[in-house]
Amino acid sequence: MQKETATWQERITSNESVWNLTHDIHPVLNPLYDESVRRILGRASLGDAPRVLDVGCGLGGWIFKILEFRPGATCVGIDMEASFIERARAEAERRGLSDRVDLRVGDAVRDLPDERFDLIVCAGLPEAFGGLEPMLERLRPLLAPQGRMIIGQGIWEREPDEECLRVLEASRGDHDTLERTIDSIAHAGWAPVYGHKSTEQEWDDFVWACVDGLTRWALDGGDGQEGVDTPRILLAVSEYRHAWLNGYRGTLGYMTFVVRPVPRSWQALVVSYELARRTWTAPTP
Ligand SMILES: C[S@@+](CC[C@H](N)C(=O)[O-])C[C@H]1O[C@@H](n2cnc3c(N)ncnc32)[C@H](O)[C@@H]1O
Questions:
Q1: Calpha distance 223→205 (Å, rounded)
Q2: Most buried of 112, 135, 262, 281, CB within 10 angstroms?
Q3: Mutation to probe ligand 1, out of 87, 91, 125 (largest number of atoms < 8 A from CB)
Q4: pLDDT by residue (tens digit) across 242-276?
Q5: Whose CA is nearest to atom 4 of ligand 1?
Q6: Distances in Å between the alpha carbon of 59 and those of 133, 181, 192, 231, 285?
Q7: For the segment 45-83, what is each residue's pLDDT rounded down to a tens digit?
Q8: Which domains does the chain carry?
Q9: What is the reported pTM?
């Protein structure tokens, strides 16, 4: 029983067809409405012609929003999934944006370009770097001194119970509370300047888009694939819905932050202050 349920993540999240079909319904592959993306971009202090890097760009959900938001922007997008990059390139071509976007198949850690960007987006893949702080450290040299980074990060909205951890195949240490996540960002030498917590409705819409995408795949043989195994996919949809409704809904949250790098010369001061504040407890009167 345990093993059967534990495979829903593999069956769903590792299958690119699901994301392709979900993207048609919900372009950004994270729980964010378009207006939230625009509001977050509005807080990233972008100039007229920013140079942007999107690490783990998926099908280009953020990239196309940025190119629309700043008609002078140019973007480099990197994702390990070749089919996503292929589709994002076709989309850029269709929109007449190919000259403003450079989409590359590559690894988020190993294949980063050797240049500086005004904005870096890294939404929903801190685990690829081994966590939030290593991700911030790895991406720092690629950001211009006055640049901004937009990061997407899971948080615990409340203490996860055993069922939640089981369906997510996660441990308590994989995420933190909102407060402690912000502390970690500051402790890593960054200044958080904006945060958007995805609402329950944003989460629900995103999950429903995945469920709809999977169901289309099962029932309509979507994504042009031959020999779709309808019963297996329907079973996976059911497991996914169960994991959401009975496992992590209301417990796993999603934050999008805009952060700025604190100059190295100030970092020691800020980090020691953050550390002292974390460990200091008020004396009892
Ligand atoms: C949850 S999706 C988010 C996609 C996109 N950032 C968005 O918000 O629409 C995570 C993406 O990270 C990519 N990814 C995961 N690990 C990666 C790695 N080590 N290198 C490059 N891409 C990776 C996946 O292929 C997937 O497209």
A1: 21
A2: 135
A3: 125
A4: 999 999 999 999 999 999 999 877 777 777 777 77
A5: 58
A6: 25, 27, 27, 27, 57
A7: 999 999 999 999 999 999 999 999 999 999 999 999 998
A8: 2-271 (3.40.50.150)
A9: 0.89
